[in-house]
Amino acid sequence: MHIGMIGGIGPAATEFYYHNLVKSYKSANELLELTIVHAEASDLIGNIVSDSPDKQAEIFFKLALRLQAAGAEVIALSSIAGHFCIPEFERISPLPIINVISALESELARRKLQRVGILGHRISMETKLFGGISSAEIVVPLGQEFDVVHDEYIKMATTGKVDPRQRELLFTIGKGLCEKQGAEAVILAGTDLFLAFDGHDSGFTVIDSALVHIDALLGMSVQTITNKVMHATSA
C-alpha cells in the first residue's frame, strides 16, 4: 500500500512519522511505499484561527493530487490539528484518508480505557479530538493550564525544539490530568509533543497519537497485501 503523507506541519512531526514508519515496517518485514509532500504550518494555523476548514481542505486537495500522481493509494496527515478540516477534505479528496482520530478510537476501545486526558493544539483540546472519540470520556487541562499547553505546543511545533522548562511544565500538567481529573492515560494530541516525551519518563501513561496512527497504517498495508495474495490465489 503506497502511503501519501501530507507533512511539513511541522517539520519535526514529519521527521518523527518518517523515522517511525521506517522502523515499524522494517520490524514487520514489510516494504514501505511512501511519498511525502510539504504543507505550511503557518497556513494551517491561520486557517484554524479564522475558522476556514474549506480553505485548508482546498490546500490539502491540491497536495493530494500530487500524491495521487506519484502513485499513492491512501492519504495520511502528520498533523492532529490538521484533522479539523477532515470532513471537508474527505468530500473532495481523490484518495481515501486514513484518519488518526479513528485509529485512536480503536486503540482506546482495545485498551478499555474509561477516561483519558489530552495535550495538544487548542482546537484538538477544545473539540476533544473533534468529537471523534466515543469509547472514553476526555478531560483537558483547566483554566490557565489550557492556554499554557497550547502556547508551548505552538512554540515547539514552529521551532522543532523543546527545552527542560517546557518538558517539566507539560509533565506537571499531564500528571494533573491523571491525579486531579482521573485520567487513566494522556493522549499526545499533537505530533510535535514527541519532542518533550520521547525517551523520557513522564510519570504517567502516555498514548502517542502518531505511533497509534503508524500502527494503523502498517496494519492496513499488511491487510492489503494479504487481500491481494488471497485474490491472486483464488483467481
How would you characterize the overall build of this protein?
It is a single chain. With 235 residues, this protein is α/β, with parallel strands linked by helices. The chain is 55% helix and 14% strand. The chain is built from ten helices and seven strands. It has helices at 11-27, 41-49, 53-69, 86-92, 100-111, 122-126, 144-159, 164-179, 194-197, 209-234, and strands at residues 2-7, 33-38, 74-77, 115-120, 137-139, 185-189, 206-208. Strands 5-4-6-7 form a four-stranded parallel sheet. The chain has a three-stranded parallel sheet with strand order 2-1-3, sandwiched between helices. The model has no long low-confidence stretch (mean pLDDT 93).
What topology emerges from the helices and strands here?
Elements: E1 2-7, H1 11-27, E2 33-38, H2 41-49, H3 53-69, E3 74-77, H4 86-92, H5 100-111, E4 115-120, H6 122-126, E5 137-139, H7 144-159, H8 164-179, E6 185-189, H9 194-197, E7 206-208, H10 209-234
Parallel strand pairs: 1-2, 1-3, 4-5, 4-6, 6-7
Counted by DSSP, the helix tally is 10
What integer value in Å does the Rg equal? 18 Å
* Helical percentage: 40-55%
- What would the average pLDDT be, to the nearest integer? 93
Keywords:
single chain; 235 residues; four-stranded parallel sheet; three-stranded parallel sheet
Write a short abstract of this structure.
The chain contains ten helices and seven strands.
